[in-house]
Each structure stands twice: as C-alpha cells, then as structure tokens.
Amino acid sequence: MLKNLVKNLKPSSTLAINEKSLELEKKGKKIFKFGFGQSPFKVPEDIVQELKNNAHKNKYLPIQGLSELREAVAKYTSNKKNYNYKSENVIIGPGSKELMFLLHVIFDGEIILPAPSWVSYMPQAILGRNKTHILQTKRENNWFPTAIEIEEIILKDKNKNYLILLNSPNNPSGQICENLKEISDIANKYNLIILSDEIYSELSFKNNYESISNFCPEKTIISTGLSKWCGAGGWRLGYFLVPNDLKEIRSMINVLASETFSSVSAPIQYAAIKAYENDHTKYIDKSRDILKAVGEYVYENLKSNKILINKPQGGFYLMPEFLNKKFKSSSEMCNDILIKTGVALLPGSDFGFDKTRMLVRLSFTDFDGKKFMQETQNEQMIKNNLILKFAPKIVEGVDKLKKWSESI
Predict the structure, then answer these.
(1) Residue whose C-alpha is closest to residue 343's, from 36, 31, 37, 29
(2) Which fold has domain 45-277?
(3) Which own/partner contact pairs does 152-157 have at CB distance under 8 Å and 24+ positions apart?
(4) Gap between the Cα atoms of 363 and 349, Å rounded
C-alpha cells in the first residue's frame, strides 16, 4: 500500500514537538517550549493592513509569482547583495520549504548536507531520490564544513553533479558561516551548485551579513521568505532567487509548481509587496536586539563544565552539548528532560548527528514578543531585568535545565 521510499519517514520533528508540548499543556503540565522554532513577534501592522485591504483578491496569480512582488523582492535583494537581480530571477512559493522540495525533485545529482542540517533537508532529499553525503562538522568551525571536507566528497567522483545546502545563520546551531570565500572557491572549481538557505539572515546579530552569493552569485540559489524576520510563518510565503546561469533549474521549478501548488495565495502576495517596499528597519533592529539579548542570557546561564555551547550569532537557536554518559541517545535524554523539568528540546540526532552525542537544539522564543517589543521601544539596551520581566519562561526554563544538568 505504501511505497518503500516513504515507509521510514516520520512527521517533521519540529512540528511534532510543538504538538506534543500542546498535548502536555492540555493535561495541566507547565511546558517550556524550547523545541519549536517560531518567531515570537507579530507581523508589522502595515503588512497586516495590506492583507486586509487585499482579502477580496480571489484570482489565480502567475505560477512564478505576482510580478509586482517579484520586482520588489529583486530590488530589495539587489540593494542588500550589491548584485543585479531581476524579477525573472525570483520564484514565489508557499514557503521556501516547498520550493526546496521541488529543487530536490528536479535535481539530477548528489546532495551534500553538512550536519547539523535542518530537519527537512534529508527527508526531502530522500523523496527526491538523490544520494546524500552527510558531512559532519565541528564546533571549532561554527558547525560549518571546510572547503577541504567538501572537496574530498567531490573528488570521489568529479563527473557527478553536486548540490550543497548551506544555512547561515544556522538552524539548529545559531552560528554563522565564516569561511564562505573558501567554499565559493570550491564551487567555482568544480561547478558546485549552492542552495543558500538565508531564512534567518535578517536576524543576524552581526552587522553587514555576508552571503555566499557575494562570492559566487551565479552558482548560488538564495532561499528565504517572510516567516522569520516578519513573524509570518503561518502565512507561508517564501521565495527563491535563481541566477541566470541556473535558468534551466528555474524553468523546471515553475513547471513542477504548475502541477503542485499552482500559485501562492493572492492576498498574501499583495501584502508581501509592502514587506519589501516599506522600511521595516526599526522593527527588524528591535527584533534582533531582543533575540540577541535573550540568546546571550541563555548562553551565559547554561554554559558550564557540564554543558558545552557556542555563543549565538543569529536567529533564535542554541545547540548545547551535555557532557554525560547516563543516556544511550540524545532522544532518550530529551525525553527525560521533558518529563522531569517540562523543558521541550529537540535531540541532535534529528539534525544529522550521531544519536550518542548529547546535543540538543534549544529555541529561545517562548515569550510574548509583541509585549516585549512594545514595552522596550525606548530602551537602548536589553538588560537582564527586562528579560526577567518580559521573558519569564525563558528564565525559569533555563534555570530548570541547568539544575537538571547538575543533578545527573
């Protein structure tokens, strides 16, 4: 009845942990939602108002996306990247996740996945029937691959087509890739295609975010959307920027889009124009300031001789590693933590690590972002007293997690 290809697939762990957390809450247990990564902030009001203004729009839009929206995205990205993108380079999709899936389906080659990898990369590669190479990374290199490690895979068969997925700032580690130039050299040398997942790029804690597209734009597909910086995950609007050198890929994604999602919701596309035409610098800066402060609070209060952890550099994740030998797997450990403390985490094994490494993903977004943002508009710095006041579950959950680590 079921194809062998799908029999071993499970629901996305990020969505599953959210549903499990909700079930436990309904039973009266206090849960600290450190497992599900979702922006805590509300969509900017001008974009919400534009959605209301266009709610009556009920016609199918072009498969590749509304031309005005694609033009706005191309102009916005060209200014950011200092590269001339045109509207024809943009493909609008129902979330970047769907576009990634279509890319896996059409790509004829092998996929290089640096671990840690976002939970859906591997299942999508499996559904696309592509061979994958899991490339284990190191904390010392911000959990990103080196050029040498990538080249070693390619040299095993230089005649194959290769696609590497880079996600910076990274989910689940919260780290930024700092060796983009050397990776781009490999891409240029071996005609490697790069999918640069930049969904958290606007939430980088460093100024002047750098993309690998700055070094090899004609070999890089940029993937991003509204969900993280705009707080609009449920709106399901993402997009690809596909350079002219990869127009064959762009054309085929459009063909598959015509046979799958047809077109993205019309009202949401019209509203999204304002997301890229209007200036949302203050909103983004305040979001980033809050996330940086909360992330660093978690980092400072968790790091110890029992927990290894890198300082967060962007987005809303940390990836602690617990130094204990009590559990057989990171999944078993996460279950123990959830039962004993109410803190929901995701095991490192969901992101490509060996199950015996006690790595977890921690999302520090369990707070009322609207209230936090409104009440701190005039604050130059987000200090600990504000975190105690506006992110109390983060404070309590971190305290419970630290005490748990000290007890094992």
Answers:
(1) 31
(2) Aspartate Aminotransferase; domain 2 (3.40.640)
(3) 153/112, 154/186, 154/190, 154/192
(4) 16
Domain segments of the chain as ranges: 10-43+281-407, 45-277
Is pTM beyond 0.85? Reply is yes
Q: Helix (H, G, I), strand (E, B), or coil: what is residue 343?
A: strand
- CATH, domain range 10-43+281-407: 3.90.1150.10
Strand-pair category, 238-241 with 193-197: unpaired
pLDDT band at 114 (very low <50, low <70, confident <90, very high): very high
273 touches 68 (CB < 8 A): yes
Pairing of strands 317-318, 343-344: unpaired
d(CA 229, CA 3): 38
Sign of CA dihedral 108, 225, 255, 71: negative
Q: pLDDT by residue (tens digit) across 282-321? A: 999 999 999 999 999 999 999 998 999 999 999 999 999 9
